[in-house]
Each structure stands twice: as C-alpha cells, then as structure tokens.
Amino acid sequence: MFTTELFHVPLVPEISLHLAGPDVGLFDSSGGEFRGDEPPPFWAFVWAGGQALARYVLDHPEVVHGLRVLDLAAGSGVVAIAAAEAGAASVTAADLDPAAARAIRRNAAANGVTVTVAVDPTGDAGAAYDVVLAGDAFYAPSVARRMSTLLREWAGQGARVLVGDPGRGYFPDRLFRLLAESAVPVRAVLEKTDTLLTGVYEMRATSGRR
Questions:
Q1: What does the alpha-carbon distance between residue 24 and residue 206 come to, in Å, rounded to a whole number?
Q2: Comparing C-alpha atoms, which of 85, 17, 87, 54 is closest to residue 163?
Q3: What pLDDT shows up at residue 209?
Q4: CA-CA distance, 51 to 184, in Å (whole number)?
Q5: DSSP string of 83-102?
Q6: CATH classification of 4-203 is 2.40.260.10, yes or no?
Q7: Inter-CA distances, 145 with 7, 49, 177, Å
Q8: How confident is the model at residue 88 (pLDDT cuts 50, 70, 90)?
Q9: Neighbours of 25 (CB within 10 A)
Q10: C-beta neighbour count of 41 within 10 angstroms
C-alpha cells in the first residue's frame, strides 16, 4: 500500500489530492512487477489526461453547470472533483478498483465537494447523465475497446462525452474532435518526460444520439 500525501495538482492547483510521493512509480508497491490479481494503483497518481480535462471543466464551467455528470475510470477523482467545483448538479465517479473508490471519497472530502462513488466500470448504465467525462482511459488495448464501447453507448443515450488524452497509443481519435490542448506537467518517473501535450476531445455524434 502506498503512503500518500496531499499535493496540489500541477495544472489544476485549485484541487488537492492524496497522491504517492514524487519519486514513486506505479509498480513500486508490488516490487516493480505487475500483479494480475490486483489492479495497479492508478488512483495514487494524477495523470495528464485527467489534469487537462479537469482544467477544461474549471475553465468552461458551462459544460457541467447544473447538469448530471459521470466520471468514468475516475482514478484519483480529479475530474469528478473539478465537475463538482464547476457547479454540476450531481457528480458520480465510477472506478472498478475499491481502493480508487476510497481515494475518491478522501479526495472529495479534502476539497469540500460531494461526489457519489460507484465501484462499477459502467457507471450504472441504467442511470441518466447529461455529461460523461473520462481522463486518460485509453492506455491499453482491452481497456480502450471497453471504454470506447461504453462512451459510445452514453453518447447514444444523449450524453455529451468529453475525454482527456495525451496521445496514448490506443486512443480512437476517429471518434472524437479536438476542443483544446494543454502542456501538462507530469512526473518523469511515470512518463519519462516532464510535460505531455494533452488534448481534450468531444465524442462525435452517434446515430443513436438524441
């Protein structure tokens, strides 16, 4: 288990999160190895796509203000927290890792906002949302396929879908249009660089969208 500290998010200093220390890597808690029976602690880090999307939401509060918002694959909860701070009527953060759910609750409390947490990768497909957000969710082939399917389903139900992505290899750019770009400060121990040019994208209209 990681020991975390409260840090300001580099691109979104209005938000503070309980994160692993600056020299800690994603697999340090497992001796540097991936363990198939335990999800990596993505929640202990703030990723470029989440930072860029959170920044966009805070800079464009009209995107979520007064609306029902879902943050899929929420991780640390940075995007969900930004949506709550921007005036969303309700915010649900969904992540299949129970440790992420605990982290989101802790981070929401640290920022004085209310976020409902769902340990459910679909974000409760029976619920109604006006906006669906996802930060840095296309980092592996199987995850990218699943996320693309889920996001297209939400778009088909009438939700506006926005994602943040720093050019991960499995991002399905044909499904999206670029809204904004940011040079996002990141940890070299994770990304082998200090900044990543990261886009915020909106999913193109689907045939089933109202």
A1: 41
A2: 54
A3: 43
A4: 7
A5: HHHTTBSEEEEE-S-HHHHH
A6: no
A7: 32, 17, 18
A8: very high
A9: 12
A10: 23
Coil, helix or strand at residue 155 = helix
What's residue 55's pLDDT?
A: 98
- Total number of residues shown for the chain: 210
67 contacts 89 by C-beta, under 8 angstroms:
yes
Give the Cβ contact number of residue 61 at 10 Å: 15
Q: Where are the beta strands (DSSP E) in 99-146?
A: 116-118, 131-135
What is the CA 99 to chain-centroid distance, rounded?
A: 15
**31-82 per-position pLDDT tens digit:** 445 444 567 899 999 999 999 999 999 999 999 999 999 999 999 999 999 9
Lookup: tokens for 79: 């995007």
- Residues whose CB falls within 8 Å of the CB of residue 74, separated by 6 or more in sequence, listed in order: 80, 93, 94, 95, 100, 104, 117
The two structure tokens encoding residue 111: 């920022």
The Cα-based distances of 199 to 58, 103, 129 in angstroms read 15, 25, 23
User: Cα–Cα distance between 32 and 56 in angstroms, integer?
Assistant: 34
Backbone angles phi, psi at 13, to 5 degrees: -65, -10
Q: Which residue has the tokens 């860029």?
A: 52
CA distance 38 to 30: 10
Cβ 151 vs Cβ 161: under 8 Å: yes
